[in-house]
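Chain A, query sequence.
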Amino acid sequence: MTKDRLTRRFLTRDPDAMPDVQLLELLLRFSVEDAAGLAARIMEQYPSIAALIEADPERLAEIKGMNEESVLLLRLVPELHRRYFLSRSQGETRLLSSTDFGRYLLPYFYGARDEMIYLLLLDAAGKVLNCRKLGQGSVNSANVPARRLVQEALTANATGIVLAHNHPSGVALPSKEDVEVTLRLRDALSALEIMLLDHIVIADDDFVSMRESGYFREYGY
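Chain A, predicted structure.
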């Protein structure tokens, strides 16, 4: 690809000065000839980058001029972005607070369109032993598999765990069902001398700690 005006502008000037449609055009040049036309049609249907990143791939494929390679590119970008933030957060050697837990877990939910549940496993010094996806769906609807959760903790020899799930189209506040499930899991883990350190609820770039919000103290823990 020759360095035309648009390419030179991106490489030699501040990309912040370029509108979204031009950045999208540059990306789509790797998959279609009429990148400018396709970028314009995409932005007409998805007027913000956030809406585009969160779009259903099947809906994207219906846009005139879109091909399989273009859909793939648009899905790869947010995944690479997610992996970038994951690699940064995983540089933390010890997680000692609810803020540490939330910052570490937040990238796992970047760009998520569905509700997901993750389990963070820690040793006594706060070192991360593993972070595992437990399931798809809300804590309530997915019926968090307590047996698997316990097995994961025992296999990793974890002394503490942090549960996390997201509310893709809501706010980062725990529901009544979130609290009830959390307390049941807490009791199951306590019998095995494994501490439930926190339950983090995530929405977009925000997160709420159930421990810091007082839900654990309210129930005597």
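The chain has ten helices and five strands. Residues 122 and 128 are 5 Å apart (CA to CA).
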